From TrEMBL:
Molecular-function GO terms, alphabetical: iron-sulfur cluster binding; oxidoreductase activity
Gene3D superfamilies: Alpha-helical ferredoxin (1.10.1060.10), FAD/NAD(P)-binding domain (3.50.50.60)
Name of this chain's protein: Pyridine nucleotide-disulfide oxidoreductase
Organism from which the protein derives: Niastella vici
PANTHER family: GLUTAMATE SYNTHASE [NADPH] SMALL CHAIN (PTHR42783), GLUTAMATE SYNTHASE [NADPH] SMALL CHAIN-RELATED (PTHR42783:SF3)
Domain 4Fe-4S ferredoxin-type: 28-58
Taxonomic classification: Bacteria, Pseudomonadati, Bacteroidota, Chitinophagia, Chitinophagales
Domain of life: Bacteria
Amino acid sequence: MPIKNNRLTAEQYEQNFSDIHPPFDSRESALVEANRCLYCYDAPCTKSCPTSINIPKFIKQISTDNVKGSAHTILVSNIMGAGCSRVCPVEKLCEGACVYNLLEEPPIPIARLQRYSTEQAMEKQWKLFERKPATGKKVAIVGAGPAGLSCAHVLSRAGIDVTIYEKESQGGGLMTFGIAAYKVTPQFCEAEVNYITSIGGITIKYDQELGKNITLAELKNNYDAVYLGFGVGLARQLNIPGEELTGVVDAIRFIYDIRAGAYEQVPVGDKVAVIGMGMTAIDAATQAKRLGAKDVTLVYRRTQAEMPCTEVELDIAKLDGCRIMWLAAPATIKGENGKVTQLVCNLMQLGDPDASGRRSPVETGETFTLEVDMVIKAAGQIPFEELVSGNQIQHKQGKIVTQSNGATNIAGVFAGGDCVNGGKEVVDAVQAGKIGADAILKYLSL
């Protein structure tokens, strides 16, 4: 049961990683769906969007062929509206709130309509925003992910010069490095970053990591304000015997490797177990299958009722042929010659609710064994606690503590996104960036 790359043909890779939610194939198709919208007053879809996009307005603009106006309506609320149209879990946000669900009819395909407008804006390089005259103020942002880019765009529009320090060689953060390739490609992410920064006044310095190449003290001395949007990224360890064996990898690194290189270069096992049931676990499992793994099993310690991922994401995994083992928790990873051969799991049952409100998994005393040659850990990510505490930033187990406007305990330093909330959706990070930018403008008396 070897772990190897180059399992499929070029045609198979292309088919397996093609766009999972294709855009409208014509203007007429978009108009048909736009004209289904009821343009609700006090629309529940808008209220369910973390960035409060005026959804009925942008759909109405599409229906009247005002695509440029539609794109502006979207991007003024969510500058990463193009990317979010591809990756947002709309089934639990805008589309899940559509009134058509109550009428037992398909909801308006809001994400596809949003993609229709925003991708035209990017392709045609529409200039939808103008910078105000330069104020002479300078702001440093740590992290060129959704929170940092959103914050930067708002500040730049206000005439502030922004410098973003990014530890990777590309911007986009989670969008670029942490999401399944069949949802959004690195090339698209690069184009979106370029479109956002085309407003001017935003400089991104790559390969610059806080705590290594730069310090918070330096940024405070050299800039009028600092915004921290460096997310989370440390994989949660299983803390079980055998975790050090060859063939045990974390999902973040696995997905990163898929995003960073050619598909045929990424090794995958014949029989793969994925630990977890969040969005990252689903992305890792489905991509392992699409890379050529013969058998992929998702192992989750609770039941379907408690899973973090959505039903839509779970269905993708099932359609790809992934198996699901509910009420199972990894206990030991066994191997031969330093390589993984088996995953021993505890059978669980649900007890009383824990701090998250979900019922706690409790061991039954029974176990079962999976024959595997690869184990992918997707049991969550943990914040950069050492980085945060080393800079005297108030935090709770690594998650930065902020006021409602993103202000930290250090004057002039603001934060938002996953480094504060521990890991939510891209759209939540975009909104955090907007809130932080507004707070910075008030702090600078602008």
